[in-house]
Design brief:
This protein has 292 residues and is an alpha+beta fold. It is 61% helix and 12% strand. The protein folds into 3 domains: 84 residues, 2-Layer Sandwich (Ribosomal Protein S5, domain 2); 34 residues, no CATH class; 136 residues, no CATH class. Strand 1 and strand 2 form a beta hairpin.
Length: 292
């Protein structure tokens, strides 16, 4: 089964004093293009996180985010540095006395605005127990993204099968026009010789020339190669992940055969069918860019 490169995954790790949010998004890219935004406490684990992502996601432009939400409680209120407040108070009072200027009328507001009075002590040390919980959440988010990719891949596979079936049907619909085309070519040439030029001609020589001309317009090889490419596309799609580039190459080969059919068709109805095949193939080419 194929996978899409587009995906989204999220997980949450609940700790006693905080909630760790993990989000991972994936878009199209020719290779693995990974960018991370990780809260400072967990940055020491960035290489481990990157390895985990690289192991599970082969291609795509990946955005990984890990951020912290503090749980509100009375204990979590920002403390006031009382010693610092007292120091500022004494300094301001001494300066006012020396310079003979009035002291602030609202001491409390003045002191609270001084640098570092309101402090928040963050515990930066990461314990193994905490990291194990967060690591499991990282894996969970990656798994959710992979599952999303599989669902998108299933939708793509259905679309590809539909388009391949359409191209196969269009290819078969060419057959009735091939004999008609030969007859029309022969008729056009003989009419030109008999009516327009009004000359006698060697009918045996004409038959030889017609055979040569018609062989140049023969599309059996192109039809066979295109049929093989259609089968190979389906076979490749059914055999594992990471087939996006290969499917793209096969689609290019299909395009070459369809273009050759168009250049050799020399028949209005056949050319209309070729245009329809090109339209179906173009939709395949657009969507194959999403395949991992």
């Amino acid at each position: 089964m194929i996978q899409s490169m587009t995906g989204y995954g999220k997980a949450i790790a609940e700790l006693s004093d905080k909630k760790i949010n993990i989000e991972i998004k994936s878009l199209n890219s020719k290779a693995l293009d990974l960018s991370t935004r990780i809260a400072p406490t967990y940055r020491e684990k960035e290489i481990e996180i990157r390895n985990e992502i690289s192991k599970n996601l082969e291609r795509g432009k990946i955005d990984f985010s890990l951020w912290i939400e503090k749980k509100e409680s009375a204990e979590s209120a920002t403390p006031i540095n009382q010693a610092l407040v007292e120091g500022y108070y004494n300094q301001i009072k001494d300066i006012a006395d020396k310079l003979n200027i009035p002291v602030p009328t609202d001491w409390f507001q003045t002191l609270l605005r001084m640098p570092d009075v309101m402090t928040k002590t963050e515990i930066q040390e990461l314990t193994e127990e905490e990291w194990e919980t967060v690591h499991m959440a990282v894996i969970e988010a990656i798994n959710h993204l992979v599952e999303f990719r599989k669902q998108e891949g299933a939708a793509l596979e259905k679309k590809f099968r539909e388009k391949i079936t359409n191209i196969s049907a269009l290819l078969e619909s060419i057959a009735p026009y091939e004999k008609e085309r030969v007859d029309k070519v022969k008729e056009r040439i003989t009419d030109a010789l008999e009516k327009t030029l009004s000359v006698d001609y060697d009918k045996n020589r004409l038959e030889q020339e017609l055979i040569y001309y018609i062989e140049k317009l023969d599309v059996n090889e192109e039809k066979q190669r295109l049929t093989n490419h259609l089968k190979y596309f389906l076979h490749t799609m059914e055999n594992g992940n990471g087939q996006g580039k290969k499917l793209g190459f096969i689609a290019q080969e299909m395009g070459r055969e369809i273009n050759t059919l168009g250049s050799k068709s020399n028949h209005a109805e056949m050319q209309k069918i070729v245009v329809q095949m090109k339209d179906e193939l173009e939709q395949i080419k657009e969507q194959v860019l999403n395949v991992m």
